[in-house]
Design goal:
By secondary structure, the chain is an alpha+beta fold. It has helices at 37-53, 66-81, 84-87, 119-127, 158-183, 213-218, 271-276, 342-350; strands at 2-5, 11-14, 25-27, 56-60, 101-103, 129-130, 133-137, 202-208, 221-222, 224-227, 233-238, 244-247, 255-257, 265-269, 286-288, 307-314, 321-322, 340-341. It is globular, with a radius of gyration of 20 Å. It binds 2-oxoglutaric acid and fe (ii) ion (FE2). Belongs to the iron/ascorbate-dependent oxidoreductase family.
């Protein structure tokens, strides 16, 4: 038996005191059956529970068809297979203010915002080459973050597909946010969603090229250093390479592999939802490191596999105020964070990235 903290910060007795060792899997199919209130509640509770204990959850039987996910990865592969010259027709603008377009290897510095606490490790992370390339997109209606599309003749159909995929991702994440709202006891399932028009989200294609395993082992090269996301929530699709890991909140410094599960959504809580919920839900640190099935070669010839992933970050509208939800505070558990707008929080975090 152990003491557990409830949504308003009071304590209750619970049986489950086992160390968190894996990322829970939630079957989302019952959420879609509108009349079935008790099954919907069960899904909502399972997701909220995972967000509280681990901050990461696999969601299966969601509404994004497998064929669409496959197609997204095919487009991503085609994009990254373009010549450097072609990719550079849509470069990430200088500076941090616009986070759109193509970032070549080591351009974006997640090391600058790493959550790694060990001093020696931090020093290594700062020196390592961040060997990933990315392409970021958003809503065409977001004038603060203008898209950097490729000229259509460079990859015909790419823009149309990605625009559609962006809104399909928003549709499923809207449902996930509704479930989270219900799961943490909010009366209005749209409460969180009301601050999210969808125009401030970010769809990102990521490619981690193959790299000598020794370079990752010696940490002269990194894939993605440990960090938290500054979204409300993030969903992610990944190929079968592996290497994504989430820090175990109950054992800081210990990482749990987010082993690829075909077509599952990997969902994680971002900093904003953690702040909204007064730290009840966890914005868990995560990183991309050596994939488990890395090599068939020997010595310095050993190569890791290349890896593709597609995260989608949900953010509230820029002027939305992130302040503690009344349901998540009490006299004994007052708000832990000063209210802040999305745009201010984003500025604080993004300004260190480029
Ligand atoms: O590539 C991945 O699996 C993780 C990406 C990620 O954490 C991010 O872009 O914030
Ligand atoms: Fe992340």
């Amino acid at each position: 038996m152990s003491e557990e903290i409830t949504v308003d910060g009071s304590a209750e007795i619970a049986n489950d005191n086992a160390p968190v060792q894996q990322i829970p899997i939630v079957d989302f199919s019952a959420w879609k059956i509108k009349g079935d209130l008790s099954s919907r509640m069960q899904v909502a509770r399972e997701i909220a529970d995972a967000c509280r204990k681990v901050g990461f959850v696999y969601i299966v039987n969601h509404t994004i068809p497998d064929s669409l996910i496959d197609e997204a990865f095919q487009w991503s592969k085609q994009f990254f297979a373009l010549s450097d010259e072609d990719k550079m027709t849509a470069p990430h603008p200088d500076g941090w203010a616009v986070h759109r377009g193509y970032s070549w290897p080591d351009r974006e510095k997640v090391s600058h915002i790493t959550t790694e606490k060990d001093e020696d490790q931090r020093a290594k992370i700062m020196e390592a080459l961040e060997y990933k390339e990315s392409y970021d997109m958003g809503s065409d209606k977001n004038s603060d973050q203008p898209n950097q599309w490729l000229p259509d003749e460079v990859l015909p159909g790419f823009r149309a597909f990605m625009t559609r995929f962006y809104w399909d991702c928003f549709s499923v994440t809207s449902d996930i946010m509704r479930a989270i709202a219900v799961g943490i006891g909010l009366e209005d399932e749209d409460h969180l969603l009301k601050k999210h028009s969808g125009h401030n989200n970010q769809l990102r294609l990521l490619h981690y090229p193959k790299v000598p395993l020794e370079a990752l082992e010696r940490q002269t090269v990194s894939r993605m250093p440990a960090h938290s996301d500054w979204s409300s929530i993030t969903i992610l699709f990944q190929d079968d390479c592996g290497g994504l890991e989430a820090e175990d909140p109950s054992q800081p410094g210990r990482y749990i592999p987010a082993t690829p599960l075909k077509n599952a959504i990997v969902m994680n809580v971002g900093d904003l939802l953690q702040m909204w919920s007064n730290d009840y839900l966890r914005s868990t640190n995560h990183r991309v490191t050596i994939p488990p099935l890395s090599t068939s070669l020997k010595g310095s010839d050993r190569m890791t596999r290349e890896r593709y992933s597609i995260p989608y970050f949900i953010a509230p509208d820029p002027t939305a105020l992130i302040e503690c939800l009344p349901a998540c505070m009490s006299e004994e558990n007052p708000p832990k964070h000063a209210p802040i707008t999305q745009v201010d929080y984003n500025r604080m975090r993004a300004s260190m990235l480029y």
